[in-house]
Structures are given as C-alpha cells and as structure tokens.
Amino acid sequence: MLRAHSTAIAHLNPALNANVTLAGEQARAAAEQAVMLCDPIGPLHGLPLAIKDITETAGIRKHLCLAALPRPCADADAGVVARLKRA
Asked: How far is residue 64 from each of residues 3, 20, 70, measured CA to CA in Å?
C-alpha cells in the first residue's frame, strides 16, 4: 500500500503541489519495523497521513509556507503527531 501511495504522489504532486516534504524513508522504516516486531494493527494502520508543515514532526523541516527558507528539523513530534503515529 505504501508503494501505491508513493507512486500516486510522485505522479500527481508536480501538478498539485500539495506535498512540500515527503517522508517516504521514515514511512518505509516504520512499516518494516511494525512487520518485524509483529506490532498489533492500530486503527489507522495503512492509512497515509498528511501533516501540515507548521506542526512539529521529528526529522522533518518546517517550511511555514516559505519553501525558499526552510527551518531546522524538529527534535520531537508534537503531541498530535505522536498520537497519530501510535495509531
């Protein structure tokens, strides 16, 4: 499913410009870890997430609508992002 969503984003995003930053490697690593650890499937398992770039997300740069002036990466997730990732 991750591959299908990544392919669709790669195909559509140049025209839509809906996603500034993609976290494909993070998503892939999280999926592989869940499979290796046999983590129970949560209520949001398999759903792609889009998080507004003003929200602190660990390892993701905040652009604040200014793609030419990226901000440093966040050290930790905001509470809402942490809860979404756990789900």
From this structure: 28, 10, 8
Query: Which range has the top average pLDDT, 3-12, 18-27, 46-55, 68-77?
Result: 3-12
pTM: 0.72
d(CA 39, CA 64): 34
Query: Can you say whether residue 9 is alpha, beta or left, with left for phi > 0 and alpha for psi between -120 and 50 degrees?
Result: alpha
CA 19 – CA 64 distance, rounded (Å): 13
pLDDT, residue 82, reads 93
Q: Answer whether 27's CB lies under 8 Å from 2's CB.
A: yes
